[in-house]
Amino acid sequence: MLTKSQAKIFFLAGTIIFSVLFLGLSYDTHVNKHDEQTNADKITPEVVAGKHLWEANNCMGCHTIFGEGAYYAPELTKVIERRGAPYVKGVLMSPTPWGEYTSGRKMVAYGFSEKEANELIAYFEWIGKVDLNGFPAKPKYEIKKTK
Ligand code: HEC
Question: In a 10 Å sphere around its CB, with 0-12 CB exposed, 13-18 middle and 19+ buried, how is residue 23 labelled?
Fold first, then answer.
């Protein structure tokens, strides 16, 4: 058993060591790897426009990107890889709420123009190439992909 003062030292030393480690690793990520992992040089005006559409239409009210958002609808970080761009375009431009009969849930029928759909796709393509150290894990089942 630790004495009270030993426990105090153990607690303080542990807190200090791991705080320094945490701050050091955060610094390393932000200063050395951030632009490389996010492919910052590939953020085109189209990608930015897609991001604005993503924000303005509250897509995160139902979906997640990088695991952030709501869990009503599918995770979209790798949606282009999973589904293919033509499928995604169909969902975004659909005049009626898109939904596979298996899920029982429906996507909002935004009826985006082709330009807007392309901007959102550019955003998803960029998002899908960000190096997330393996996130999201590949599903164990196969989803049909349209080419
Ligand atoms: C009210 C909730 C809701 C909102 C808000 C919403 N979606 Fe969806 N979305 C869904 C649901 C539910 C599905 C799955 C439908 C299905 O395939 O059965 C879906 C499917 C999708 C898919 C296909 C995903 C896949 O893996 O099959 C894409 C892409 C998508 N949404 C993009 C968007 C974008 C972009 C926005 C914002 C402009 C948005 N969604 C806003 C509910 C929503």
Answer: exposed
59 shares a domain with 17: no
Stated length of the chain: 147
Model pLDDT, residue 141: 73
Regarding the beta carbon of 100 and ligand 1, being less than 6 Å apart is answered yes
pLDDT per position as a tens digit, 73-110:
999 999 999 999 999 999 999 999 998 877 789 999 99
75 within 8 A of 67, measured Cβ to Cβ: yes
- Residue for token pair 């189209």: 46
pTM of the model: 0.84
Give tens-digit pLDDT for 106-127.
999 999 999 999 999 999 999 9
Res 128 pLDDT > 80 = yes
Same domain assignment for residues 138 and 73: yes
Residue nearest to atom 25 of ligand 1 (CA): 74
Based on the fold, state whether residues 68 and 113 are members of the same structural domain. yes
For residue 83 and ligand 1, the question of a CB distance below 6 A is answered with: yes
CA of 94 to the centre of ligand 1 (A): 11
Q: Are residues 64 and 23 in the same domain?
A: no
Number of folded domains that form the chain: 2
18 is in which domain, residue-wise?
A: 1-38
